[in-house]
């Protein structure tokens, strides 16, 4: 379960970072 949570957290951080990068790239 802990590994699954870590993977989910990493995926969430990656998606957030990608969203921010895309948002800043559009500007």
Tell me what the structure shows.
With 27 residues, this protein is an all-alpha fold. The chain has one domain. It is 93% helix and 0% strand. The chain is built from one helix and no strands. It has one helix spanning 2-26. The longest helix is centred in the middle third of the chain and has 25 residues, at 2-26. The protein is rod-shaped. The chain starts with a helix and ends with a helix. The model has no long low-confidence stretch (mean pLDDT 89).
What's the order of the H and E elements? H
Number of strands: 0
What is the tally of helical segments?
1
What is the oligomer described by this structure?
single chain
Helix content range: over 70%
Task: Provide the number of structural domains.
Answer: 1
Question: How far apart are the first and last residues' alpha carbons, in Å?
Answer: 39 Å
Relative strand content: under 5%
Which term fits the overall shape? rod-shaped
Rg estimate, integer Å: 12 Å
Average pLDDT rating:
89
Q: Provide the structure class.
A: mainly alpha
In terms of per-residue confidence, which ranges show pLDDT below 50 for 5 or more consecutive residues?
none
> Main beta sheet: strand number and arrangement?
none
In terms of topology, how is this protein built?
Elements: H1 2-26
Structure summarized in a few sentences:
It is built from one helix and no strands. It is mostly helical and 27 residues long.
Key phrases:
single chain, 1 helix, rod-shaped
């Amino acid at each position: 379960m802990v590994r699954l949570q870590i993977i989910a957290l990493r995926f969430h951080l990656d998606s957030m970072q990608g969203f921010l990068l895309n948002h800043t790239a559009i500007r």
